Amino acid sequence: MSRILTQVMAIAIAAAPVAFMHVTEVQAAGKQVKRHTIPDGERALDMWEVQKLMSRHEYMHAAIQNEYELEHFWVEADGPYAKSATFASPGWVMNGLDTIKRAYGGATEQSKAKALEALSKIDPDLKNIPENMGAGSEWVMHTSTTPVIEVAGDGKTAKGVWYSPGMGLMPAVDGSSVKVRATFFWEKYGGDFVKEHGQWRIWHLQMAYDFTPGLDEKMTEKLGRKGEAAPASDANGPGREAGERMGGALPEGFTKPKYSYPAYSYDRVPVIYPKLPEPYYTFSETFSY
Q1: DSSP structural state of residue 242
Q2: CA distance linking residue 145 with residue 197, whole number of Å
């Protein structure tokens, strides 16, 4: 009796994943097709994992740890999604993980090194050593609020949009002192995510800005040991996201976006962009951010 009970339990455990799968029928190629979708519990966990992934992006960005973010939270460099990865703003699209690593990762490290070198020359207490890397760099903080997340019925991909309010402080050496430019960010993110080896990864990110006003210089005049606030009207300040202060032709691997989300103006008709995700079964049946 004991052996029979053990066999029955083994069969039940093996069949459990199938038993809890939802089965739906859809019309495809002129006939009804059954689809197995992930259970509600798995979907809820996946939504939470995607939210945590997006929050990690925000934390890494604020700490200027872009290379760490790319290594641990974006699609794998040697995986099937690397070439189709994108990071986009209203002004440009980084195409492919190699481009993203170069522009969002490597270029940021170079900027950190230059900022520390410049600051150490006017501040004798700040040594130009690896332990101080990041000093003198811009500090950009975003939050990921109001999430709308949809996990694919097949559990392989997910989509989400967030409002992402925040602020940025951009120090710059001016002679023998440091000026700190500052701006608010009222923007949105849209993202596609894919599960690789059981882990959720960032595949596509799309940014859209509504309002990026400069802060009054009185709000930043006391920042830093030698700091003075730069005018809010600085040409490289408000209205441009950190990491986007580029002029002329776009670098290799960049393209212009198909749609450039317009910043707020009184005659702008409000639109929802990025588009809110809708329920879908597999990624080929939905749009891409």
Answers
A1: T
A2: 28
Q: Please, which contacts does 23-27 make with residues 24 or more away whose CB atoms are closer than 8 Å?
A: 24/153, 26/281
pLDDT attached to residue 242: 38
pTM over 0.90: no
Do 108 and 243 touch, CB atoms closer than 8 A? yes
Across-strand partners of 37?
A: 22
- The answer to whether 226 and 124 are in contact (CB under 8 A) is no
Closest CA to 104 of 222, 3, 253: 253
Domains of the chain by range and CATH? 1-37 (no CATH), 40-285 (3.10.450.50)
Handedness of CA 213, 217, 219, 223 (dihedral sign): positive
With CA atoms as reference, report the closest residue to 186 among 166, 214, 206, 169. 166
Give the integer Cα–Cα distance in Å for 241 and 25: 45
Q: How many residues does the chain have?
A: 289
Pure H helices in the chain: 2-20, 40-62, 66-73, 97-100, 107-122
The model's pLDDT over 14-32, given as tens digits with 9 standing for 90+, comes to: 444 444 557 665 555 567 7
Displacement of CA 154 from its chain's centroid (Å)? 23
What is residue 129's DSSP assignment? S
The one-letter code for the residue type at 244 is E
